[in-house]
Amino acid sequence: xxxxxxxxxxxxxxxxxxxxxxxxxxxxxxxxxxxxxxxxxxxxxxxxxxxxxxxxxxxxxxxxxxxxxxxxxxxxxxxxxxxxxxxxxxxxxxxxxxxxxxxxxxxxxxxxxxxxxxxxxxxxxxxxxxxxxxxxxxxxxxxxxxxxxxx
Length: 151
Ligand code: DQA
What we know:
The protein is built from 5 helices and 5 strands, in the order E-H-H-E-H-E-H-E-E-H. It is an alpha/beta fold and 151 residues long. It has one domain: Rossmann fold, CATH 3.40.50.9100. Strands 2-1-3-4-5 form a 5-stranded parallel sheet, with helices on both faces. The longest helix has 17 residues, at 134-150. Bound molecules: 1,3,4-trihydroxy-5-OXO-cyclohexanecarboxylic acid (DQA). 1,3,4-trihydroxy-5-OXO-cyclohexanecarboxylic acid (DQA) is lined by residues 15, 78, 80-81, 83, 104-106, 108, 115.
């Protein structure tokens, strides 16, 4: 497989479709569409392909992770509130065995106690939290580095 064929799946969890208007003091003013456009631009620079998918439904995110195995080499995931509740997403990531990077716009460790625990953190390669939309950029760079390293 040539380097250009690396495909990364970028997953956005619940309420992230509201970015831009949702608590902008925490999550910033950028819309999800703008974040995805910037990620597509970065993907071109890195010479990889990305697909972005957002869902408010835990089951749809699980389905997407399960299907990712045959098409993608890595995952960037902001599971949003499911980060703190979803054993199903954790199990799906383990089941696919794909390397994943967990990202958060806000620094979850500076916020409420219930956000300090992530069910995903111990099954992903690493976590990036607190850099706003840059968290996704850093996450994409990190997963591409990881995939290339593993080839
Ligand atoms: C978030 C942090 C989560 O605690 C929260 O539920 C979100 C967004 C973030 O990107 O900062 O919806 O994942």
